[in-house]
Design goal:
The protein is mostly beta strands. The protein contains no helices and five strands. InterPro entries: DUF5988 (IPR046030).
Amino acid sequence: MTTKARLDGGPDDLAGKIVPITPPGQELKIPHRGGYEHYKVTTRHEETEEGRVTVYRWWERTEVAE
């Protein structure tokens, strides 16, 4: 099952974006600028041009280990 989420917070170029999530879970880990942006699921939903989506809130960034 594929669904979509809206990102709340985090880097300016990710905040507000609609992204696919497969399968829906408790956390999103998005590769971004040499690291990962982590988002946690919330109980909020929003109506968007792409339909009803779950809001995921940014909570931390981790760096990629070399």
